[in-house]
Amino acid sequence: MRIWSERLPDVPLTLDAVSAAEAPAVLRGRGADAGFVRLPVDRTDLSAIPLYTETTVVVVPKDHLFTAVEEVSAEELADDIVLHPLDDTLDWERPPGLPAFERPATTEDAVELVAAGVGLLVVPLSLARLYHRKDLTYRTITGVPESRVALAWPQEETTPDLVEEFIGIVRGRTVNSTRGRTPTPPQPKQKRADKSGAKGKPTAGRTAGKTGGKPAGKNARGASGAAKSGAKRGKPRRRP
């Protein structure tokens, strides 16, 4: 948002938060020009570029024994109830741990149940941060699926230049990057003011600026020498 406002101050950018399940439909319905989605996504009418893979974590109460370590494995959850919300974003073959009596409707609901001591929750890191509570924490977990995040937009986009600009910002392109933009045509070389080939005095820019040329002191001496070499000398007089 900050970089967009700096580069395109006259084009407003609005962010809308939607669930991972709703994001593709919002894009198809033109409710947004571009959006972050979790892969896999149907690319029949959407374009998408993968951005990164998220770390997966297990959300636990702050007094849980897992807080004594930095990382746990899926096998270590075998005796714990692990909540599996209906909007889960991980592609499970079989979730770890013991199943709960009922699946929570949303990830946010599952976080509330973890805080109540009902069970644990395995989610991508961004969701653990989004629904963070002071009485909960999380630890990296291995041996489980990871979530891949992509930037998607409708294939028949009506503002391709702005979408391309947004893609560049998301992918970290600098303001001077020419990728995806119409290259600036080369400018014609400026002709020298003096076509006679005679060397004139160095310009003030070369004398004072640090552009890789000679130091200022040397240029100053050169200018003085050039000025002298351009003066006419008379013939010496013969002695009578």
Structure description:
With 240 residues, the chain is α/β, with parallel strands linked by helices. It has helices at 2-7, 23-28, 107-115, 125-130, 160-170, 204-208, 216-229; strands spanning 35-38, 46-53, 56-61, 71-73, 81-83, 98-99, 120-124, 136-142, 148-154. It is elongated, with a radius of gyration of 33 Å.
Task: Describe the structure concisely.
With 240 residues, the chain is an alpha/beta fold.
User: How far is the first residue's CA from the last residue's CA?
Assistant: 90 Å
List the uncertain runs: 180-187, 194-236
What is the percentage of strand-forming residues?
15-25%
Radius of gyration: 33 Å
Number of helices: 7
The 3D shape can be described as elongated
Output the structural class: alpha/beta
Average pLDDT level: 80
SSE blueprint:
Blueprint: H1 2-7, H2 23-28, E1 35-38, E2 46-53, E3 56-61, E4 71-73, E5 81-83, E6 98-99, H3 107-115, E7 120-124, H4 125-130, E8 136-142, E9 148-154, H5 160-170, H6 204-208, H7 216-229
Parallel strand pairs: 4-8, 5-6, 5-7
Antiparallel strand pairs: 1-9, 2-9, 3-7, 3-8
